[in-house]
């Protein structure tokens, strides 16, 4: 275990040394490029940290983030790697940049190429501010997904549970239910009745006689309310006297005097006069005839 840790530590240390030397080589080229686009001595010295430093930050973010955030960090790393490679390539093609004798703002002899290179060199610091802040915010708000340990011996545990005996189970077998047997009372003879059972010979074993049990039908109890039967008492009856057909017609005429023809129905007359449906239909026909309407 100790050898494994020492090997990993040696590998990380070697990687740091290689990256530091590569940064020193790239730092020389990026410093000269920054001086050519108008940066002063301090800005030219810090310019390599802006480009190559963001590359290191994006590399660390790819190791922490996951999903779309990791894809974004990889794209930033690739973009700044290509930009640093292009600027280092231009530094190797223009010897005047080494002695800083090149004209200010001139990185190529062809104007379109020069404009593109100057735009690239000047936009890298602004991009470092934007992309670096975004990567740091994503890393700070990242919530790592908890790693759940897989069940290695799932099949073995299932077989063990199946092979357990019934006595090891948490719930035991319920005890058998014994019926509650109640002895029925024997019938008692009332009065002096002459026995009709023939006499048995001597020495015969008398068998016990079991009286027959009388079965009676018991009506099932109903939960529905029973309807009242019999004659309705006088108190429960309505106090309104029974009206004659003429009285009903008079009341209907008064009640429907101001009704329109469309409202003159049997149901409306029945509710207004409070009579039976048959009387209401008869009153409707009479009233419609008096108004000269067609009888339905």
TrEMBL record:
Q: Give the Basic and acidic residues compositional bias ranges.
A: 282-296
Q: Which InterPro entries match?
A: DUF2637
Q: Cite the entry's keywords alphabetically.
A: Membrane, Transmembrane, Transmembrane helix
Segments spanning the bilayer are 46-65, 72-94, 114-133
Region of interest (Disordered), residue spans: 154-173, 221-246, 275-296
Q: Name one Pfam family in it.
A: DUF2637
Where are the annotated coiled coils located? none
Entry superkingdom: Bacteria
Q: Does the keyword Aminoacyl-tRNA synthetase apply?
A: no
Name of protein: DUF2637 domain-containing protein
Q: Which organism is it from?
A: Streptomyces tropicalis
């Amino acid at each position: 275990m100790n050898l494994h840790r020492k090997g990993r530590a040696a590998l990380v240390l070697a990687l740091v040394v290689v990256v530091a030397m590569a940064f020193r080589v790239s730092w020389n080229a990026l410093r000269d490029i920054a001086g050519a686009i108008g940066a002063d001595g301090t800005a030219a010295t810090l310019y390599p940290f802006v480009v190559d430093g963001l590359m290191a930050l994006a590399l660390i973010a790819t190791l922490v983030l996951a999903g779309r955030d990791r894809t974004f960090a990889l794209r930033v790393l690739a973009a700044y790697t290509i930009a640093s490679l292009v600027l280092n390539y231009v530094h190797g093609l223009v010897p005047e940049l080494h002695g800083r004798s090149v004209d200010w703002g001139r990185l190529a002899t062809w104007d379109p190429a020069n404009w593109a290179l100057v735009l690239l060199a000047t936009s890298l610091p602004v991009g470092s501010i934007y992309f670096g802040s975004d990567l740091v915010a994503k890393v700070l708000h990242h919530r790592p997904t908890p790693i759940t340990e897989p069940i290695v011996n799932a099949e073995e545990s299932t077989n063990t549970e199946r092979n357990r005996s019934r006595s090891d189970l948490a719930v035991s077998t319920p005890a058998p239910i014994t019926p509650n047997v109640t002895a029925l009372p024997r019938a008692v003879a009332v009065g002096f009745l002459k026995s009709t059972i023939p006499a048995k010979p001597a020495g015969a074993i008398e068998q016990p006689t079991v009286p027959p049990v009388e079965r009676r039908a018991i009506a099932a109890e109903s939960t529905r309310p029973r309807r009242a039967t019999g004659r309705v008492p006088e108190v429960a009856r309505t106090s309104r006297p029974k009206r004659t057909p003429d009285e009903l017609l008079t009341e209907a005429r008064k009640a429907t005097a101001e009704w329109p023809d469309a409202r003159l129905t049997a149901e409306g007359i029945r509710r207004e006069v409070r009579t039976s449906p048959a009387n209401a239909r008869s009153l409707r026909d009479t009233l419609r005839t008096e108004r000269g309407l067609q009888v339905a």
